Every structure is written in structure tokens, then in C-alpha cells.
Amino acid sequence: MTTIAPQRVVRLHYVLKNANGEALDDSRARGTPLEYLHGHGNIVAGLERALDGQAVGAELSVTLMPAEAYGVRREELVQEVSRGAFPVDDLAPGMRFQTQGDAGPQVVTVVEVGPERVTIDTNHPLAGERLSYQLEVLSVREASRAELAKGHPLDEDVDHTQVEDRKQP
């Protein structure tokens, strides 16, 4: 029986709940299982550790503290920026935008909107949260060479023998 280990593609269903027991995400309700490449940082570290060694059909409950999930909340990541930094004029608290940060893409949440300045929060929206997962492992398979080169699973209609991206002329 194949178990979850590095270099394997895992498909699973999950329900993600916050500390109050409210469902934040449910892959089964969406009809789309999560598929990820184990050992490549495609999911939060605590969840990957909990899944290591599990087999197809395994059902488990995992509770992660913030440091094992999306990190602790850092107040220094809340800051003011110019209102002109946003692509839309109609801004409201709670709106989210994806921007390029120092470490790559990041989500920015609008906290407060003033006439000239906007307070934003660049913490992950789930930072500081204790999260619980209900998991069901659906399948585990060896990753293709192309998937290992890319660092994530490829869609079924992708030719897995092609490792390099095709560049536009």
C-alpha cells in the first residue's frame, strides 16, 4: 500500500474550521479535492507533518496552532499606504488585493480607509488562528518527473513528459 511521503502526489478531502468550530472551507462541498505534492511546501507545515505516512482511506482530525499553520499575527505587518496605491477608487474595510511582496505574492486586507491614506494588513488572513482540519486521504501516487521539476501536481491534460515551459516568441 502506498503511503504519503515526499515526492508523492496526494489527493484528499478536507474541512477547515476555526477555533469556534465555524467551517471556513470544505473541499467536498465544492466538489474539488485538494491535490498537492508532498514534501514541497505546497500546504502548511503542520498539516504536511500530520499527513506523513498516512495511507489511502485514512481519516484524521488535526488541530494546528498558529505557528504550525499560517503563522502568528504580527502587528508590524499592519501599515498605512497612499490611497493611490490601489487600482480602484471604491475601497472598503475587508476588501482584499493580491500584491507583490518581498517574498513573492501576498494578500493585502484593507483595514481602514481615509481620504488620503489606507490602513492595510499584510498578515495572512488566517494568521494567529488555531485551525482544525478533518481529512480523508483519497489517493497517493508517485509524482512524475515534470511534477517534481515544477514542484506541484500538473493537470491531467498536461503532458507530464515535458519538463520545460514553452516560451512565447
Automatic annotation (TrEMBL):
Region (Disordered): 148-169
Keyword Chaperone part of the UniProt annotation: yes
Domain of life per record: Bacteria
Keywords in alphabetical order: Chaperone, Cytoplasm, Isomerase, Rotamase
Gene3D superfamilies, A to Z: 3.10.50.40
GO molecular function: peptidyl-prolyl cis-trans isomerase activity
Cellular component annotations (GO), alphabetically ordered: cytoplasm
Family per record: Belongs to the FKBP-type PPIase family.
The protein, known as: Peptidyl-prolyl cis-trans isomerase
Species of provenance: Franzmannia pantelleriensis
